[in-house]
Design a protein that fits this description.
The chain is an alpha+beta fold and 271 residues long. It has one domain. It is 62% helix and 8% strand. The protein is built from nine helices and six strands; from the N terminus they run αββαβαβββαααααα. The strands form two sheets. Strands 3-4-6-5 form a four-stranded mixed beta sheet, with helices on both faces. Strands 1-2 form a two-stranded antiparallel sheet. A hairpin with a 3-residue loop joins strand 5 (106-109) and strand 6. Helix 5 (127-142) crosses helix 7.
Length: 271
């Protein structure tokens, strides 16, 4: 009898005990790595990234990134406080930077460290476009999506290890590894990532509206993003992101809900 497998399965079961709460859905999420451990590492990586890239400072665009970032993070804090999560952001260290890079990209690390690439500014087009992107990226952090992806990776790694230990025949093990990779990606990790993106769109729409930015601009941004694509995008089931058409449709449907939420905070007109 191979005694390694039970121990591996027990270890995986123990890992699965870790969880956190998504304040926007109220649902429990995987949290095998605590923010106490995750944030300091993210902050160090962020500082290293800035050292290795051309950070744009004291320009109209860099000031706009900071201005929008502060409004979005302030709106997020306002919403969280109003919904019973007063200490949720206590370990966040917000920072907003623009780097000189033609990539069409932006991201927010766990703990509130944000980078916009100059290549995305043309598509953002205006401050509402920046707010749409900022809200989306901040939403990833607030919903602990990075934490969840790390947790899911741990499970995937543990199951792969268990399978390789359990299967003695080399040929069968090779087939298992190929099949496992396809099944966990297409059937697990890719839909998992797409659900995160859709959730970040919804939360981001809400936050930008509470910040006073017009949520009606969000689908317009994704129409511009769709037009900027070079070549054919992969089928949605093979992509980590929903298709542009899906995002545009979902964002359009969510506009009134976001405006209704903003109204609770006295926001009835938008920039």
């Amino acid at each position: 009898m191979n005694v390694k497998l039970p121990f591996i399965l027990i270890a995986i079961s123990v890992l699965m005990i870790g969880c956190a709460t998504n304040p926007f859905t109220g649902k429990k999420t995987m949290a095998f790595v605590s923010n106490v451990s995750l944030f300091p590492s993210a902050f160090l990586q962020y500082d290293q990234f800035l050292k290795e890239h051309d950070v744009i400072v004291n320009t109209a665009n860099s000031k706009m990134i900071r201005r929008v970032g502060k409004r979005i993070s302030s709106a997020a804090e306002k919403w969280l406080n109003a919904n019973g999560y007063q200490d949720y952001l206590k370990d966040y260290r917000w920072e907003y930077n623009l780097v000189n890079d033609t990539l069409i990209n932006a991201w927010c690390m766990p703990g509130g460290k944000i980078v916009f690439y100059s290549g995305i500014l043309e598509i953002a087009k205006n401050e509402n476009g920046i707010a749409t992107i900022m809200g989306h990226e901040v939403a990833h952090a607030l919903a602990n999506h990075g934490q969840q992806r790390m947790s899911a990776a741990y499970i995937q790694s543990g199951l792969a290890m268990a399978g390789n230990v359990a299967i003695n025949d080399e040929s069968s093990r090779s087939v298992f590894n190929q099949s496992f990779g396809i099944v966990t990606s297409v059937g697990g990790m890719l839909p998992f990532s797409r659900s995160h993106e859709s959730q970040a769109d919804e939360i981001g729409l809400l936050i930008m509206a509470v910040a006073g930015y017009d949520p009606s601009e969000a689908p317009e941004l994704w129409k511009r993003m769709k037009s900027s694509k070079i070549g054919e995008a992969p089928p949605e089931f093979l992509s980590t992101h929903p298709s542009n058409d899906t995002r545009i449709d979902n964002l359009t449907k969510g506009i009134q809900k976001a405006k209704n939420e903003a109204k609770k905070f006295g926001i009835t007109s938008f920039d």
